[in-house]
Predict the structure of BnaC08g04840D protein.
Amino acid sequence: MKNVVYPLIRLQLQNGATARFWYDNWSPFGCLHDYLHASNSRFGIPANATVASLYRNGAWRLPPARSDHQLQLISYLTTVQLTYDHDCYLWEMEGEIMQKFETWKVYHYLRGNIDTVNWAPAVWSSKSIPRQSFHSWLVVLDRNPTRDRLISWGLQVSHLCLL
């Protein structure tokens, strides 16, 4: 689930004191450890380095770029200005920053788009009894275990009737 949830948790970079350079999602490139293939070489930057530790006297202290990805990162860093505010984590889904965590939004994001079936209004009516709607839903999907249980007990039941 890490690959699914990681892009949703965005670190809003302020002073960079708590932002882990390699592992936090603070840049548009995501996890820099993966983006820069740092498992081979970390370019002299410690694994536990923070963003603030690489910024001194108004300049970034990074090794010269040796790849296009490093060049893109350095270009991005020239636009970053650290402030005195504390870093904070935000929820971001589909480019929109959420002011608060809402379970239903995350559920719909993770679930993806599901087409509405034509029988849904008949089963999930606003005036129906939830227990009966749930039972009807199981019957429509042929997931009602009653018939299967009766057959497993050795009783002769019609294979046509789900109930």
